[in-house]
Design a protein that fits this description.
By secondary structure, this protein is mainly β. The chain contains no helices and 21 strands. 0% of the residues lie in helices and 51% in strands.
């Protein structure tokens, strides 16, 4: 029996394994730590766990809490060996963790992974990708990148196509670019499951038939959550254009259906800016 320890940014895992019927069995102790001093209620946890050689099916994995109760968990392979076996598993689950405390789990290969109470619902077609988390539903267009083409919160439409919403880049001499200048060349579900989904959008800033900077945006949604996690990368890497890019400002501009006065970040007391009339 082998024992290994792995520390992954607040997640501590101890693995033991044996062999049953020619395939390794798994027993992994997982500890989720909260270092920031903020209590977490059904906080989302994403991390990877190494798998022993010879383990073949992620369908056999189940995550259990400290009381031995199965916890809904999304499992996906992170790389495969030459024979097609996964050598890492990506875990997505939710956990309550006290401020500066910890929560303990056990990952086993005994099967019985339960479905989440409110799994993500995803609709993917030629025009758009729509994701429903339960409290939040949103749509991303495949034909133009206006960030969110539409959004509903608790069933109420808070953003729609006519409301301007796009990524802005301001450069030297007040040259202003936005993500509506050309259709994105890639819009895909990079990762999708019942607990977490990620939409990736790649495109180029185009103005007056000139190609400028490229971007990659990832929009992540979580089961049962009313918020999104968004990352955006700006690249000066178009293969046919070489120039120095002078960037004065980068921003996401949007407006809610209810309208109202837009507030600047300096107006916000808790680190975020709101629009008058929204639900914040």
């Amino acid at each position: 029996m082998n024992t290994r320890a792995l520390l992954l940014g607040g997640l501590l895992a101890f693995m033991t394994r044996g062999v049953i019927g020619g395939e390794p069995s798994i027993s992994v102790k997982i500890e989720v730590q909260e270092p920031a001093g903020a209590e977490r209620k059904a906080g989302h946890v994403t991390s990877g766990i190494p798998l022993p050689e010879g383990f073949r099916s992620l369908d056999k994995l189940v995550l259990k809490d400290a009381k031995g109760q199965p916890v809904p968990c999304q499992f996906a392979p992170l790389g495969k060996r030459a024979g097609g076996e996964p050598y890492w598993a990506l875990l997505d689950f939710q956990s309550d963790v006290p401020a500066r405390g910890k929560a303990e789990f056990l990952l086993e290969s005994s099967g019985g992974n339960p479905a989440p109470a409110r799994p993500l619902k995803i609709a993917d077609d030629k025009q758009s990708i729509t994701v429903d988390t339960g409290p939040l539903k949103f749509r991303v267009s495949r034909t133009k990148f206006n960030f969110l083409d539409a959004a509903w919160l608790d069933g109420e439409k808070v953003l729609e196509r006519k409301d301007a919403s796009f990524w802005i880049v301001e450069g030297a001499k007040d040259n202003r670019l936005d993500s509506l200048g050309a259709p994105p060349y890639k819009v895909e579900l990079e990762y999708a499951g019942p607990m977490r989904a990620c939409i990736r959008v790649d495109g180029t800033y185009v103005k007056e038939n000139l190609y400028y900077l490229e971007y990659t945006c990832r929009i992540e949604a979580f089961a049962g959550k009313p918020f999104l996690a968004v990352s955006w990368k700006l690249r000066n890497s178009h293969p046919e254009w070489a120039f120095n890019a002078y960037i004065k400002d980068v921003a996401l501009e949007t407006a809610l259906t209810g309208g109202g006065e837009v507030l600047n970040p300096a107006d916000a007391r808790a680190g975020w800016a709101a629009v008058a009339g929204d639900k914040a």
